[in-house]
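Justification of computing resources. Each target in the renewal requires a structure prediction run like the one illustrated here; the chain below, 411 residues long, is used simply to show the kind of job we budget for.
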Amino acid sequence: MAGDHEAVVAARREDLREISAQVRDIQGQLSKELKANRFWKSQSERELSFLGASSNHSVGPVGRGSLGLLALKENVTPGKRGLPLVELKTPRAEGKQLVLRENEADQSGGGGGNLAVVPRAERCAHEVSLLNERLANEIEAHFETHLHLETLRDNLKDSEEREKEANRRIDTLLSEMKARKTRQHHRESEFATNLTKHQDFLQDERLRRIQVERDLHKVLRQNHSLQKTLRDLTRVAKEKDTRLKSVSTELAGVKGQSGLPGEGEGAGAREETGGGGGGGQSMVSSLMDDLRRVREQLEEAEESAQVHREDAEAKEMHNVFLQEQLSLAEAQLTEKESELEAGTSAKLKELQSTSVNFMQVNEDLINELEEKEDELNKKCGEVEALEQKLMEKDGIIQLLRETVEGLKGTK
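Resulting structure tokens:
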């Protein structure tokens, strides 16, 4: 659209140059015509003075005839140049025909030649001055139109510069918006990466806690089994102790009931007692061995239970430590999530405000461009009106040209 306006303005400038050249040519022709009219006026005055001087010594019809021939010579000149009086369609041509008719009437009536020729020269000079004045006015109007067109061209350039500036502002805002979106996307991706790392860490900690809990339950089951075995061994040891006590009591009772027998009876009794005592001692020794083994098993069970108890305590302490680490990691994750949510909400609000500002600026620029477009349309209308005026002035100049050509023909 701006290119079309520049082309129209350039074409109008070319037309103005051509019109100015034509006006200068017309001015030169009019100046030549004015000089020629002055020459013919002085020539007519000399002829009239000569005819007036000769008419004082001549007869009346001869003077009237000579004056009529002079007037006829003045008015028949266009016909001799190939411009018949019938083809002159301008009002000035009609005025020339009227002058011719007046001259013919003067010629037929006799006398009065001075009243027909002198006013014609004055009218020609007056018409030439009017034409010069009109041409000067037309030239001034053309220059004003040219200046107005230059002003419109400058305004059009200013509008184009403002439009370019608005486009640059839009490009700047778009680039800033793109950069902000890129930075926001980078931050969001970084936050997402950190969040994924924390989630993986928490998942690993949960798996470790589950494994520790499983180990702890296993140790607790082993401890419970060992405690059950210890209880069984304790019960067996108690039974052994009870049996040992009962056997010892029976052995003591048997020893108390036996007396001092005779030699034969005593020997038999000793043999029996010795035999009975040997059987009791073997039973006691076997019970003592069983009791010793039970005590050793109890000690081993107690040691194993102590080891398992210590292992369970260590596992429990490690589980507590893992629980604390997991709680700390969950707290950090919650804090990171809250920070991420706060940062995301802030960035979202910033993006929304930026989008609103961008939309407002875009709307303002669109309104400004619409105003500039309306202004350009208005200027286009003014240019079209000026073109119409130029066309009218071209018609006036053409009419003036025809008038000048008609005046040339009247010579």
